[in-house]
Specification:
single chain; 208 residues; mainly beta; Immunoglobulin-like; 4-stranded antiparallel β-sheet; 12% helix; elongated
Length: 208
């Protein structure tokens, strides 16, 4: 009798296992909004100069391009996006190469910024083949004041100014410095307009 009971228990147990194995495991619904690329695990400002910024970031698996957006004059609000730069992943040169893309570090230099300005920059990764995108990572930085001149030579009634050829300068302002009530007040003369020919040179004669 005991053997028969044990036999029945064993049959029921095996039947239970068979039913459980026939079900589809992990057959759960998922939200397609979460079917996206991962964000870069690193995104930071490495160096900020008067007219450029160097950004360091990690790669993203399956990304075919990276999209950078710059907003001027705000702090991570992105209310004034003035520039969008798209970089193809296969054109990037790793700064430090690792075994995986997500561990590989890249550095990109962005030029033609304005001095003494606040910028917000954000990055998203995109897969152009399936349309997947990552969420944004973002950072804030401020460019210092710009020092255009590389050298100067004073004369009796003039000054010779030197700068890099083709620099993005539109005019030069100059004036007389006064001292009054322990405050430095500068009286500016009319702006000196730089011609296109002068921009391509490295020296200009400025009469004072």
């Amino acid at each position: 009798m005991k053997n028969k009971d044990l036999y029945c228990i064993l049959v029921y147990f095996l039947a239970f296992i068979a039913i459980g194995c026939s079900d589809q495991p992990n057959d759960w619904e998922y939200d397609p909004n979460y079917d996206i690329l991962f964000r870069p695990i690193k995104f930071e400002i490495k160096e900020s100069k008067a007219t450029s910024v160097l950004i360091e970031y990690k790669g993203v698996e399956e990304a075919t391009k990276y999209v950078f957006e710059f907003s001027e004059g705000d702090s991570l609000l992105f209310t004034n996006v003035i520039r969008t730069v798209e970089i193809l992943a296969d054109t990037l040169t790793p700064y430090t190469k690792e075994a995986t893309v997500s561990a590989t570090t890249y550095r990109t230099l962005f030029k033609e910024l304005n001095g003494t300005s606040k910028y917000s920059v954000r990055l998203r990764a995109v897969n152009q083949n399936n349309g997947k995108e990552s969420k944004y990572v973002q950072a804030y930085f401020k460019t210092p004041s710009e020092q255009v001149f590389t050298n100067n030579i004073l004369g009796l009634d003039n000054i010779m100014l030197y700068w890099e050829p083709n620099i993005a300068v539109t005019h030069i302002s100059y004036g007389e410095l006064k001292y009054q009530n322990e405050k430095n007040d500068t009286i500016w003369a009319p702006k000196r307009i730089i011609t296109d020919i002068e921009k391509k040179k490295e020296v200009s004669l400025l009469m004072v």
